[in-house]
Amino acid sequence: MAEPGAPARAAGVLRPSQALDALASPYVLERFSALTGEPVFVVDFRLEPGVDVDPAEHDALQALAWLPCPTIAIVADDAAARTPAARAFDLVLQDDQGLGGVLATIDRAPLASLALVQLLRQGERLDLHHALVAESLVYSTLQSGPEFAAWLATAAKPRRAEPGAGPAVRVERFGPELVLSLDRPERHNAFSVEIRDALVEGLQVAAADASIEHVVLRGEGPSFSSGGDLSEFGDLPDPATAHAVRSTRNPARLLVACAGRVTARVHGGCIGAGAELPAFAGRVVAAENAFFQLPELSMGLVPGAGGTASLPRRIGRQRTCWLALSGERIDASTARRWGLVDEIRPR
Predict the structure, then answer these.
(1) How are beta strands 169-174 and 177-182 bridged, if at all?
(2) Spatial CA neighbour of 44 closest among 19, 70, 73
(3) Rounded to an integer, what distance in angstroms lies between the CA atom of residue 69 and that of residue 65?
(4) pLDDT tens sequence across 3-47
(5) Are 123 and 317 in contact (CB under 8 A)?
(6) So what's the pLDDT on residue 113?
(7) SS (H, E, C) the chain
(8) Could you give the CA distance from residue 100 to residue 107 in angstroms, rounded to a whole number?
(9) 3-class DSSP state for residue 81?
(10) In whole angstroms, what is the distance from residue 200 CA to residue 277 CA?
(11) Could you tell me the CA-to-CA distances from 157 to 160, 163, 233 in Å, in that order?
């Protein structure tokens, strides 16, 4: 068994027939595991053209959902990506584009990668409330894991910001409209405890007042939000308490409660929480310069602001998995094409 936190071993690529044989083996869970074997299960469907196995009709392929590692299908084109066999995988890549970056992430953080795909698999069967509970439990578990500890030990954490002048989230009422503006532009609206608590208070007002017909969520400065405030990472007393905090004060739950009235207007960097929270809104309007990114795997974590619940419901499980495992940015036009954004406007 590999030492926890040790680099995972690079995986070989299987033909579909080899993959079926492997999945039928009683030893498959140990052969493809972040702890005891290959940290990823990769199948190249281009090596045996025309093979399309329906998971519902092939018992072995159903074991994909049990593997303690990410599963990746490599296909030739869009048509192949839509086959039942390809849809059963956690991630589908065309012509192995981006495979190297994804494998590098899995190699650096095999435990977090495993947790991510298990969370996304379960999320398809859960409602939003239970999906948020599951995400918080997984996030808390990883906060006490070796990969996050290794990141904390080597990361150059920024200096904690001094309290800003004025509220962290500006709340303004214009008749039936409530505008919530993240207002720490000098920090690119990094999602700090201060911003989280202020956003919760503003959304509580919206949820409690039926006369508020429309809620606008926006950000001041060059970015909508650069994601979690790195200066606060590792500060919580213990993972159990962190989970209790997320269960008590969670902007995602309030956004779900009034999503039909919420428009998120995003621009610039929409990173981590800055991509995850707007996805709960009933409508997302992006500026042309907006970009979206999920960097949490590089820290040994999974998205923790609700992204494993919100993003799959907009763009699907496989695209969410790609964003998290690759760490790549997508621009506003790609986000619009995928459904993460409903409209693009000049800022």
Answers:
(1) antiparallel
(2) 73
(3) 10
(4) 433 433 445 899 998 999 999 999 999 999 999 999 999 999 998
(5) yes
(6) 98
(7) CCCCCCCCCCCCEECHHHHHHHHHCCCHHHHECCCCCECCEEEEHHHCCCCCCCHHHCHHHHHHHHCCCCEEEEECCHHHHCCHHHHCCCEEEECCCCHHHHHHHHHHCHHHHHHHHHHHHHHCCCCHHHHHHHHHHHHHHHHCCHHHHHHHHHCCCCCCCCCCCCCCEEEEEECCEEEEEECCHHHCCCECHHHHHHHHHHHHHHHHCCCCCEEEEEECCCCCECCECHHHCCCCCCHHHHHHHHHHCCHHHHHHHCHHHEEEEECCEEECHHHHCHHHCCEEEEECCCEEECCHHHHCCCCCCCHHHHHHHHHCHHHHHHHHHHCCCEEHHHHHHHCCCCEEECC
(8) 10
(9) helix
(10) 12
(11) 9, 18, 8
In tens, the pLDDT along 260-293 reads: 999 999 999 999 999 999 999 999 999 999 999 9
H or E element at residue 78: helix 78-81
> CA-based Rg of the chain, rounded to a whole angstrom?
21
Q: Note whether 258 and 203 are within 8 A (CB).
A: yes
Instruction: Give the residue ranges of the chain where pLDDT is below 70.
Output: 1-11, 50-58, 157-158, 160-164
- Residue 257's contacts (CB-CB under 8 Å, 6 or more residues apart) are 203, 207
Q: What element of type H or E holds 302?
A: none
Written as six digits, the tokens of 108 are 């650096």
Supply the pLDDT for residue 3: 42
| Identity of the amino acid at 97 | Q
d(CA 17, CA 230): 45
The pLDDT value given to residue 51? 62
Cα gap 262→44, rounded to integer Å: 42
Quick one: tokens of 222?
A: 């060059």
Angle, in degrees to the nearest 10, between helices 110-123 and 307-315: 60
**What is the per-residue pLDDT across 334-343, written as a single tens digit (0 to 9) for each?**
999 999 999 9
Which distant-in-sequence residues (6+ apart) come within 8 Å of 12 by Cβ? Answer: 38, 42
Question: pTM score, two decimals?
Answer: 0.92
The reported pLDDT for the residue numbered 235 is: 75
Q: What is the pLDDT of residue 97?
A: 85
